């Protein structure tokens, strides 16, 4: 047993907890010894009544004796629908006690992202990306922990915590290695595999420490506790029956012994038979009967307290239970005496009406709540919602009560739930918003409002669950009431959800059908632009006829409005992918800008057009050798999405395309870092989606350029970079990259097959850009030894395509390929021409490769040295090794 046997029944849960307390003591000693120590997470798991709360109370005492700052919070069964509720409990008291400047200093750069979720600042916008909010909270708490060392965070009843807090906890547990904080979690076991249990299991796994399972008391400990409570004269048979009746559950043991004491029952074998009846009175129906025995007013007071769940004060309960203050205070005293409610120490306020109350144990709170008759419970939740609204606490706080009210065609309730959903979205809690809107639909809304609620529900899940958005937006569009700009916006959002769910053909059909409903004008032109956009990124079936229609339509555009600017961008992207004149591509892109900048309404977060159009603009610039403009656009996207808190699809794609720009420039280290971040973000949204392919393909391509073939193969294996491919265009070209990877690992036949498949796709689309999809030069090199005639033809075709496109990079790369297929002086001359073109291009990796190849062909140590320096600058380890090897061997002309 724990040293120093408890002298009061309230200490019962600490009996036989030596191992647990020793574990905590070691963790606290480590935390307090060094402010640079790694953090830790301890999880204590046990079924109801095994003493988790008492153990956390002892941990608080241990930590405070060591000079630690201790913050705590507790989940509640009735509060799981309140987003960030437990995290706010944990952090709000400390942060709200600080002046605003110090709060901002504590949260740092994450103040505007984490502050609204914590309820200490107002949201900056109407929607926050939940992934980014979570990252902001993780970083903010890490920052707080470093400034508040040594800090201990206690989370009790974590199995009832809200999903947003649990997601934060799982993410925070992954980042404890370098932050001095001890997190202690108490939870019940969950064998149902629910979402909350998965988050808690993930947190425990990330911490890398075993979960501490709490056991029931042994017969010996129960006997010791019985004698400590009732007196040493309690005989063995009586003590043994106490253990048998309670099954060694500490809470039930304490409650039973209190009943024995109150009934003045002698603790001897002759009275042991009465223990089971006494035990039944302590829980469940017995507790309810005991509560009723305290009187109708006390029962009503307890019910109201259970409805509130948190923030229980005499005044609040009195208002909810419709009783005067004196009666409410009397009821509070009665319930505290009966060990149903308690006044926590230290008291938060000395005034009788505002002092806080809480249930003695969560089990009692649960039993009381479940004892409320269904109709009464529903009515009291309705009154609680009205009370919270009257107090000006906002629709979001009232929503947890509104969710419990029976549907009754209440127009006001629908509007309250819609407002609550907006407030939840603004702090990054789309799941909570979804629950509110789904409940609003069950009311149901008025016919003219119904479609709008469905539309809002579809928008709420668009960032996190495109598949769910599809059904909701389709339903909204199929009902009357959604007209004008909102209907068009719903169609566009539906097409975007379809696109990101890899249902591209349906995305095209959706906007095409809506466009047919409108007469010629700005609305129809906007929808046609989206149709061309989705067709333009189709990876397999975009036909030459479509390009001609787009060219004809764009030829009439001057860029006078955003619809025309969109068509100019689409035409530029289409021309770039098909290898038309790069000068014409750049001219089209420039005409889509206003004074060299994005037009108002065409920004990265503007909802009317979406991010895809601007990604196409940046890509057109990137492959037309205007990498400065591409980098500027994609850097702005990342900055804007970061500031706006859009941490899902949008930021992943911004990083993927910025990584593409870095890769094109030859900044391979920056490209790898940025693309790994893109993959990490894409993992959150879901695999096999187009954005996931963009990030993964770019990373594999960059690793191959760096000469890290094994890593590239590992990434491909880890993230499923293999057929079947998405139906959208992936940049860089997915089959070219996959083919090059297979060739690099020695799977030549498969690599040639991939490159030949890319050739067929290019033929079906009516041509290709040899820089965007370099399958022709890779295939020519692969076939040089086995089919030199075909290799030569491929190289010649690549030169024609490159000269048609006209960029220095395209022509230089085609010449590199031609030189690789030749020998002697002809190879030297072609390699020299390749160097001349690539030296003028912005693509430094390709310049380094050409310089090294020329140095080897011409036997030029100066060119090899220059190429080596360039390769090292780029981070191209494979190229650098090749140049170094050639220099050391003194290799001359071939």
From TrEMBL:
Molecular function (GO) terms listed? ATP binding
Q: SUPFAM superfamilies recorded for this chain? A: P-loop containing nucleoside triphosphate hydrolases (SSF52540), TPR-like (SSF48452)
* Top-level division of the source organism's lineage: Bacteria
Q: Where is the Orc1-like AAA ATPase domain?
A: 15-184
Matching SMART domains, A to Z? TPR (SM00028)
User: What keywords does the record list, in alphabetical order?
Assistant: ATP-binding, Nucleotide-binding
Q: Does the keyword ATP-binding apply?
A: yes
* Protein known as: ATP-binding protein
What is the species listed in this Swiss-Prot or TrEMBL entry?
Streptomyces nogalater
């Amino acid at each position: 047993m724990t040293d120093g046997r408890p002298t009061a029944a309230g200490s019962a849960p600490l009996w036989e907890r030596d191992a647990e307390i020793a574990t905590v003591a070691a963790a606290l000693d480590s935390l307090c010894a060094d402010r640079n120590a790694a953090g830790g997470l301890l999880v204590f798991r046990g079924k109801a009544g095994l003493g988790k709360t008492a153990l956390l109370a002892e941990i608080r005492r241990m930590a405070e004796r060591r000079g630690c700052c201790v913050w705590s919070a507790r989940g509640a069964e009735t509060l799981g629908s309140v987003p960030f509720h437990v995290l706010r409990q944990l952090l709000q008291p400390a942060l709200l006690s600080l002046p605003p400047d110090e709060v901002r200093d504590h949260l740092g750069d994450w103040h505007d992202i984490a502050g609204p979720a914590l309820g200490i600042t107002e949201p900056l916008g109407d929607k926050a990306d939940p992934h980014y909010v979570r990252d902001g909270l993780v970083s903010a708490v890490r920052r707080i922990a470093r400034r508040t060392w040594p800090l201990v965070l206690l989370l009790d009843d974590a199995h009832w915590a809200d999903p947003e807090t649990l997601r934060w906890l799982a993410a925070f547990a992954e980042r404890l290695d370098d932050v001095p904080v001890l997190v202690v979690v108490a939870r019940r076991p969950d064998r149902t595999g629910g979402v909350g249990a998965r988050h808690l299991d993930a947190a425990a796994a990330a911490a890398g420490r075993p979960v501490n399972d709490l056991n029931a008391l042994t017969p010996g400990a129960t006997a010791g506790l019985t004698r400590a409570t009732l007196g040493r004269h309690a005989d063995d048979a009586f003590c043994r029956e106490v253990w048998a009746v309670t099954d060694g559950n500490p809470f039930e043991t304490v409650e039973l012994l209190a009943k024995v004491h109150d009934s003045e029952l002698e603790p001897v074998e002759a009275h042991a038979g009465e223990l089971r009846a006494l035990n039944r009175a302590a829980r469940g129906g017995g507790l309810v009967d005991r509560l009723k025995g305290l009187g109708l007013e006390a029962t009503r007071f307890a019910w109201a307290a259970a409805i509130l769940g948190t923030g229980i004060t005499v005044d609040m309960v009195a208002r909810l239970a419709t009783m005067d203050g004196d009666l409410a205070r009397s009821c509070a005293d009665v319930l505290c005496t009966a060990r149903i409610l308690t006044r926590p120490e230290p008291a938060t306020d000395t005034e009788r009406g505002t002092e806080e109350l809480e249930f003695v144990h969560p089990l009692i709170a649960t039993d009381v709540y479940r004892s409320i008759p269904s109709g009464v419970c529903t009515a009291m939740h309705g009154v609680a919602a009205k009370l919270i609204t009257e107090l000006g606490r906002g629709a979001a706080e009232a929503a947890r009560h509104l969710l419990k009210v029976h549907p009754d065609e209440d127009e006001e309730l629908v509007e309250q739930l819609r407002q609550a959903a907006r407030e939840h979205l603004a702090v990054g809690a789309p799941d909570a918003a979804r629950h509110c809107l789904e409940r609003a639909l069950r009311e149901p809304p008025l016919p003219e409002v119904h479609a709008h609620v469905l539309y809002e529900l579809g928008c709420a899940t668009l960032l996190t669950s495109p598949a769910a958005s599809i059904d909701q937006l389709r339903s909204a569009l199929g009902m009357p009431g959604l007209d004008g700009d909102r209907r068009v916006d719903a169609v566009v959002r539906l097409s975007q959800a379809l696109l990101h769910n890899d249902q591209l053909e349906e995305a095209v059909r959706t906007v095409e059908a809506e466009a047919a409903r409108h007469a010629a004008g700005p609305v129809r032109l906007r929808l046609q632009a989206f149709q061309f956009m989705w067709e333009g990124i189709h990876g397999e079936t975009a036909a030459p006829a479509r390009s001609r229609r787009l060219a004809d339509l764009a030829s009439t555009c001057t860029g006078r409005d955003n619809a025309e600017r969109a068509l100019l961008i689409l035409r530029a992207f289409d021309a770039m992918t098909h290898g038309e004149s790069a000068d014409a591509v750049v001219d089209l892109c420039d005409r889509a800008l206003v004074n060299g900048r994005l037009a108002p309404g065409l920004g990265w977060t503007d909802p009317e057009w979406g991010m895809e159009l601007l990604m196409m603009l940046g890509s057109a610039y990137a492959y037309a050798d205007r990498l400065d403009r591409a980098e500027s656009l994609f850097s702005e996207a990342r900055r804007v999405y970061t500031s706006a808190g859009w941490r899902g699809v949008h930021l992943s794609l911004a990083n993927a395309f910025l990584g593409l720009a870095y890769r094109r420039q030859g900044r391979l280290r920056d490209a790898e870092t940025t693309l790994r971040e893109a993959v990490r973000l894409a993992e959150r949204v879901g695999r096999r989606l187009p954005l996931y392919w963009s990030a993964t393909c770019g990373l594999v391509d960059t690793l191959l350029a760096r000469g890290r073939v094994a890593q590239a193969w590992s990434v491909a294996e880890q993230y499923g970079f293999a057929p079947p491919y998405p139906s959208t265009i992936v940049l860089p070209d997915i089959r070219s990259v996959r083919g090059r990877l297979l060739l690099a690992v020695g799977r030549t036949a498969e690599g040639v097959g991939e490159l030949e498949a890319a050739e067929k796709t290019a033929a079906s689309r009516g041509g290709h850009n040899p820089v965007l999809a370099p399958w022709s030069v890779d295939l020519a090199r692969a076939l040089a030894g086995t089919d030199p005639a075909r290799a030569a033809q491929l190289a010649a075709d690549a030169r024609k395509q490159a000269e048609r496109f006209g960029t220095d990079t395209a022509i230089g790369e085609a010449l590199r390929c031609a030189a690789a297929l030749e020998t002697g002086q002809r190879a030297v001359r072609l390699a020299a021409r390749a160097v001349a073109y690539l030296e003028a291009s912005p693509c430094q990796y390709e310049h380094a490769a050409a310089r090294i190849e020329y140095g080897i062909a011409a036997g030029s140590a100066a060119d090899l040295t220059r190429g080596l320096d360039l390769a090292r600058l780029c981070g191209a380890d494979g190229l650098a090794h090749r140049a170094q090897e050639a220099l050391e061997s003194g290799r001359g002309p071939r």
